[in-house]
Specification:
By secondary structure, the protein is of the alpha+beta class. The chain contains 6 helices and 7 strands, in the order αβββααααββββα. The protein starts with a helix and ends in a 14-residue tail after the last helix.
Length: 233
């Protein structure tokens, strides 16, 4: 365990240093996925990365257009078990050993979430805003929005969160995406092992002392086919 933890540095924010540790490493999933288009943001093609700040992993950074080769892994210690409990390391080891299964499960969830955003955009935005319509005519020729391949043009994986609690000895994990559908909040998908639990804003569901309760609260109104239900537990 010591070797794993040596990869991490305390969060530079003094208020977060006791509950978050950070490590940049090679991206194990979604290596080629980017945010090539952003349907509700017609100005997206014109946006540029800040020369002063450079590429960032926040939901609004236009560096989402570039796949990059690494991401940020974040250890969380909100549940009281701490960084040395083994939960986070077991979750990371499971991810590396089962990357293909986890990516497949995530792609199912992302496509379901994407479908809802697409339907809402077509029903509420496109009929009324000429600027949206003009941008849509351009990008619908670039991306097959109704096909699973659209995921690789609308989502970029920028982070993985690992929690000090889980449904067993393996900790919860959260996969943080920049997305062309929501450049204000991004998207975070909470999982346990290779089972998808819930989706919310970037880092939203991995942040707190009772992640199972947070997942159940989301599932009560948003549970897709294939998600692992906690509603009866």
């Amino acid at each position: 365990m010591g070797g794993f933890l040596k990869n991490f540095q305390p969060d530079p924010d003094p208020e977060m240093a006791e509950v978050r540790r950070l490590w940049r490493t090679t991206k194990p999933l979604f290596q080629d996925a980017v945010v090539a288009v952003a349907p509700p943001y017609p100005d997206y093609p014109k946006l540029k990365v800040s020369k002063r700040q450079g590429p960032e992993s926040g939901p609004s950074c236009p560096s989402a257009r570039d796949a990059g080769s690494d991401l940020e892994v974040v250890l969380y210690a909100y549940s009281g078990n701490g960084f040395h409990s083994g939960y986070q390391e077991r979750a990371w080891e499971f991810l590396l050993a089962n990357a293909a299964r986890i990516e497949s499960a995530l792609r199912r969830k992302l496509f379901a979430w994407h479908g809802k955003q697409l339907a809402q955009h077509q029903e509420e935005n496109l009929p009324h805003v000429p600027e949206y319509q003009k941008y849509w005519k351009k990008i619908e020729k670039q991306v097959a929005f109704t096909e699973p391949s659209a995921i690789d043009q609308l989502f970029k994986l920028v982070g993985v969160g690992l929690a000090d609690s889980g449904l067993d000895e393996c900790g919860f994990s959260s996969f943080e995406f920049q997305t062309g559908w929501d450049r204000d909040h991004g998207l975070g998908v909470l999982m346990h092992r290779d089972r998808v639990l819930a989706a919310g804003g970037m880092c939203e569901l991995i942040y707190g002392p009772n992640l199972a309760a947070a997942a159940r609260a989301v599932q009560a109104h948003d549970l897709d086919d294939g998600d692992f239900s906690l509603l009866d537990s």
